[in-house]
Amino acid sequence: MGRPGTRKLAVLAVSAAVVSMGAAAPPAATTSKTVTKVPVAVGYGGAVSSVDADASAAGIEVLKHGGNAVDAAVATAAALGVTEPYSSGIGGGGYFVYYDAKSRTVQTIDGRETAPLSADSDLFVENGKPLAFADAVSSGLSVGTPGTAATWQKALDEWGSERLGTVLRPAERIARDGFTVDDTFRSQTASNETRFRYFPDTAKLFLPNGQLPVVGSRLKNPELARTYEELGREGVDAVYRGDIGDDIVKTVEHPPVAPASGWNARPGKLAEKDLAVYRAKPQAPTRTSYRGLNVYSIAPSSSGGTTVGEALNILEKTDLSKASEVQYLHHFIEASRIAFADRGRWVGDPAFEDVPTGQLLSQRYADSRACLIKDDAVLTSPLAPGDPRHPAACGKGGTAAPTTYEGENTTHLTVADRWGDVVSYTLTIEQTGGSAMTVPGRGFLLNNELTDFSFTPANPAVHDPNLPGPGKRPRSSISPTIVLDRYDRPVVALGSPGGATIITTVLQTLTEFLDRHLPLVDAIAAPRASQRNAAKTELEPALYDSDAKKQLEAIGHSFTLNPEIGAATGVQRLPGGKWLAAAEKVRRGGGSAMVVDPAP
């Protein structure tokens, strides 16, 4: 079968009607079967890797019926909205990175949520003081204009081969027939039980019969199935100019809180106009040269591409392949510390801030910062930023500011197709459970992405590029990445959830794979460290209890324990049209890697 033609349409609105140019729709199944999770799969015809087996299977189903990587990515993402509803869904946003095998180019979509047009820098200030984080999260104030549905439509319009309604069908089926509750889902529900009970619609959906869901039971979401069906039938206008959007606005402006809970669910400012003017933004990727390879990721409003890219440039002149584990970790930690110092000072929404993206990614600037790293000493955090526009050797001319908090949940998927196209897509509703508000009758949670803004300046003496503003996108750490060889062919694609730890997870996985030559699944499984310009570096248990930790402490490092950092997925191109899909072995209950056909 030939490669489906992609549609390059001039779309004046995100909901423009499109005509399918791909294969016939996948046949509707009458039941949903439990699919076994495996962390690595090798084969032909395309590959999908996500945190969830049902979601990966949805993507594989679309690939098997002739869809391309973009079609499968949207199908997988929609299924994750059912099975990973605390991490993703049409109430949130994300960043989409796409490699087109025919043109050998990388393109991206910024589908980040936006602040209401009525928002200002005091969005989270009350009575002259910043709100407590917990008070801001479970409220209408935290909800940004969702970007996920617009991202799906924009990706399909630009590069897909199927209609939105077609690729949503597997997710509709899973929502209608249910998915099997596992330990991770029950644990995430339990950690949010108190605030879920504030909102009756959330409690009804995720606390069946008033109880935590039982492991092994099936959780159905018929309201979300109907929402997906409406979205597929009417297009994304249903969200941005229609009934689904009206219900979102009502929920934000009048949070449906249980009166007996006593919870002060502050109303938000999201309005119909905010939805109507929202656009998912096509934009150029970031590009960094590393070890003769080209590393592509997402540009601001996410800080992922610039921060991972700067850290790689800092590490470029250190031979990590010959370094001991301690030397490798030391240089990785210090490069992360420096890159995060610069991230905090310079990166925000480029529609509002003058972000020096090119300078942050220049090798000249990285070299001026790399000379701060010493083999026998540790930099002190918070480290002051440099000035990428005027690099000075070992310069620390700015004023230090701590890294602000980001929720550590989100989900990532990676897809490749038989034609060599690749998608790396991270989507989110911010922290686990988002705002905790389910849109009544719609079956999905709303995001709390606006809490990714600084509530007040991180350092009052320095301009903070991440304060709220009208229509502004909060800074993100999402880092979906695609690496190409010198012939612009894919080497590997990957990404991770984890809030600000996304950046360090992607950086560590890339260097473990490219420099330390671990198999992709082992690079993903390797115990992680995360330094984000803080006094202490976070370590997972296997590193926290290791001899390497003691040796690092001897030269000045300080550590704190983090039970779990990130949950990455990736795909790797192998010779002869073969793909390797890889996911977590243990984190988040293990991931799900699948290929269309294990044999040629």
TrEMBL record:
Cleaved by autocatalysis into a large and a small subunit. The keyword Transcription regulation does not apply. This enzyme consists of two polypeptide chains, which are synthesized in precursor form from a single polypeptide. Coiled coil: none annotated. Residues 1-24 form the signal peptide. Keywords: Acyltransferase, Glutathione biosynthesis, Hydrolase, Signal, Transferase, Zymogen. Belongs to the gamma-glutamyltransferase family. It holds the Pfam family G_glu_transpept. Its EC number is 2.3.2.2, 3.4.19.13. It comes from Streptomyces yokosukanensis. This is Glutathione hydrolase proenzyme.
